[in-house]
C-alpha cells in the first residue's frame, strides 16, 4: 500500500463523519465532524501502541432503560387490575402500549449506540486516542488501513532508537495537547500524566 493510500473515511454509530490520513509517513491527521461541530487533531504514530485493539462498546443505559420499561409494565399489569374497576381494560391497554413502546424505543437506541470498535491507544499511558468502527466503510478498506498503520509503527520502531525518557516526554506533550483540544478528557490526561511520570 502506498503512503498516499493510508487513509480512511467512515461514519460512526453516532452519525459523526471521521476522516483519518497518514501524512509525512508518521503523522495521523484526524478530522471528525457532525452537523454542528468539526474537530481536527494530529497524532504521531510513534506515540501509539504497535497494535490496535478490538473493543465491544455496549450502550448499557439504553439496555437498562428497556428492561426498566418492561419490568414496570409487567408489575403494573400484575397488580393494578383489582384496583382499576370497570375501566380496567382501557387502562391496561394504555399501560401495555406505553410499556411496549418504551421498550422498543430503548431497544432501537441500544442497537444504534452499541458497536464493535478498533482503538489505537497511546503507547505507555494506554489512553484511547483513535476510535474506529470495525469494518466500516467496508471490511477490506478498514483492514487495509489498520494493517497499513500498524506496519508503519512497527517499521519506525525497528529503525528508530529513541530513548525511553524522550518517548515518555513526547507522549505526555501529545496527551496534554489533545486534552487542551478536547480530544481526551482532563481526567484521562491527569491519570495518564501520573502513569508517565512514574516511568521516568
Question: Notable features of this structure?
Answer:
200 residues, alpha+beta, 6 helices, 7 strands, 50% helix, 22% strand, elongated
Report on the biggest sheet. 4 strands, antiparallel
- Record field, number of beta strands: 7
User: Approximately what portion of the residues adopt beta-strand conformation?
Assistant: 15-25%
First and last CA, distance: 37 Å
Residues in helix, %: 40-55%
Number of helices: 6
The arrangement of helices and strands along the chain is: EEEEEHHHEEHHH
Q: What is the residue-mean pLDDT, rounded to a whole number?
A: 89
Which regions are unreliable across 5 or more consecutive residues at pLDDT < 50? none
Strand order of the largest sheet: 1-2-3-4
Description:
The chain is an alpha+beta fold and 200 residues long. Helices cover 50% and strands 22% of the residues. It is built from six helices and seven strands, in the order E-E-E-E-E-H-H-H-E-E-H-H-H. It has helices at residues 60-79, 81-84, 88-113, 139-159, 164-180, 186-198, and strands spanning 7-11, 17-23, 27-33, 38-44, 53-57, 115-121, 128-133. It has a four-stranded antiparallel beta sheet, with helices on one face. It has a three-stranded antiparallel beta sheet with strand order 5-6-7. Helix 1 packs antiparallel against helix 3 (88-113) and helix 5 (164-180) packs antiparallel against helix 6. The two termini are 37 Å apart. The mean pLDDT is 89.
Amino acid at each position: 500500500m502506498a503512503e498516499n493510500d493510508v487513509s480512511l473515511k467512515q461514519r460512526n454509530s453516532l452519525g459523526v463523519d471521521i476522516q483519518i490520513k497518514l501524512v509525512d509517513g508518521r503523522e495521523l491527521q484526524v478530522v471528525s465532524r457532525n452537523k454542528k461541530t468539526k474537530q481536527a487533531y494530529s497524532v504521531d504514530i510513534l506515540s501509539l501502541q504497535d497494535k490496535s485493539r478490538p473493543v465491544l462498546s455496549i450502550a448499557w443505559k439504553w439496555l437498562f432503560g428497556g428492561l426498566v420499561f418492561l419490568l414496570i409494565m409487567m408489575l403494573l399489569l400484575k397488580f393494578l387490575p383489582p384496583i382499576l374497576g370497570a375501566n380496567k381494560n382501557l387502562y391496561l391497554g394504555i399501560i401495555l402500549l406505553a410499556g411496549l413502546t418504551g421498550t422498543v424505543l430503548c431497544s432501537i437506541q441500544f442497537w444504534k449506540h452499541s458497536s464493535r470498535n478498533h482503538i489505537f491507544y497511546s503507547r505507555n499511558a494506554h489512553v484511547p486516542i483513535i476510535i474506529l468502527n470495525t469494518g466500516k466503510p467496508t471490511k477490506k478498506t478498514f483492514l487495509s488501513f489498520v494493517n497499513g498503520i500498524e506496519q508503519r509503527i512497527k517499521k519506525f520502531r525497528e529503525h528508530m532508537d529513541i530513548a525511553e525518557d524522550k518517548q515518555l516526554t513526547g507522549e505526555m506533550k501529545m496527551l496534554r495537547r489533545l486534552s487542551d483540544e478536547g480530544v481526551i478528557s482532563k481526567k484521562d490526561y491527569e491519570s495518564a500524566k501520573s502513569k508517565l511520570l512514574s516511568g521516568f
